[in-house]
Amino acid sequence: MAQAFAVAGANSKGLPLRAAIMYSMTGVRYLEGYDSFMGFLNSRRLPLAIISTGYTVTLYTIRYATRSVPFKFVCNRLLFALGGEGEPLGEERLEQLVRDFVLRPELREASLYEEIKATGEVQLGIGDEAQKAEFALQLASEMGIPPKAVAHMGDTMGDSMGILGVARAGGLGIAFNYNRALELFLRKEGALELASGRIRLVDPKGSGADLNHVIPLLS
Hints:
Elements: H1 2-12, H2 17-26, H3 34-44, E1 48-55, H4 56-65, E2 71-82, H5 91-103, H6 112-115, E3 116-123, H7 131-142, E4 151-154, H8 160-168, E5 172-178, H9 180-189, H10 191-196, E6 199-204, H11 215-218
Parallel strand pairs: 1-2, 4-5, 5-6
Antiparallel strand pairs: 2-3
Helix pairs in contact: 2-4, 4-5, 7-8
């Protein structure tokens, strides 16, 4: 993970904050049923946490640019600084800039969004994919939610241990929009959990993936 993000960070060096936000606003594809899924979580007052190897700048954009419910998150941090060098922005300041960009279109041409650039450094919030289940269960515990009431959803091998770990702790692991590698892994390593219903396979990757198909599992 450290090696992968050392390369990713170096490749992002000099990226203007405007470009990072715009990509998160227009380049991220939301699956069918996203709004319905968020509406369901909101109506049931179900807390959401995003545990991802993505960047905070992306999650701040999702927070303000979509109909997401309020969410906690654990993820990696792509650092930004004025001119791309020196003291990096604090997370509070970064979130404020993203919020203003998304919610106040008249500010989007401000030169500051071009002057603030990625430094080329990434601070890891997740150093190992196997930590995803640990973080999910820890966040749930902090909110007074028992393991059996936790569901962890993912789509690739990067989510494999999160799905399996939560299922083995008594919760529900959901492979949604899953690729073939994840399916094969779960059928082998999670055979007992699949048989007991603690792991569920919902929609392989493709045009038919729809978050509405996940809602009944959380009801």
